[in-house]
Amino acid sequence: MEASGDGRHLRAPRRGMRVAGLLCTVAALLAAAVPASARTPADPPSRPVVLVDCFSQAQVRPEKYLLACGDGNNQLVGLRWHSWGPHRATATGTDMVNDCRPNCAAGRFHAYPVRVTLSAPRTWPATPEIRQFTTIRLLYTDTAPSPVPKDVTYPLVY
Questions:
Q1: Cα 138 vs. chain centroid, distance in angstroms?
Q2: pLDDT over 70 (residue 3)
Q3: Which end of the chain is more exposed for a tag (fewer CB within 10 A), N or C?
Q4: Which ranges of the chain does DSSP label H, i.e. alpha helix?
């Protein structure tokens, strides 16, 4: 036994308590020595996610997006982004589609209200520190341009 400064007697710690204290100290030292990334499984560091356009330009929350790169006959306009996250982005807007009657040069553009969902982000080969959405889903909230279904998903290949 050991006396404290105030006249109380303190008991010597039991052997089991000393071992437990020693183990806790060792565990704390090991935890401090191992980087956090090695201790817990975690997602890789957050990298920006973009929408790549026809001209290989990265965009975030664009107001418009050209779907038909070859002829410009299909474009999303008036996009209002409700979310833009690491896995998905959602917006509402209008799909302007040329009816190409009697041909695309003489055709008229028609407006179709649409919900847009971007998903399936992957590393952008042009800039590996950035990810790009690789899928676009269009859900027409009224009618869809013929012969397109009201709910359609396309790969984004740019």
A1: 18
A2: no
A3: N
A4: 15-33, 36-39
Give the pLDDT confidence score for residue 42 in this predicted structure: 39
Counting Cα atoms < 13 Å in the Cβ hemisphere of 33 gives 6
Half-sphere exposure of 78 (CA within 13 A, CB side): 10
- pLDDT over 90 at 152, yes or no: yes
CB 65: neighbour CB atoms within 10 A? 21
- Cβ atoms of 89 and 76 closer than 8 Å: no
Beta bridge partners of 89: 84, 118
Q: Is 93 exposed, middle or buried (0-12, 13-18, 19+ CB in 10 A)?
A: buried
pTM of the complete model beyond 0.90: no
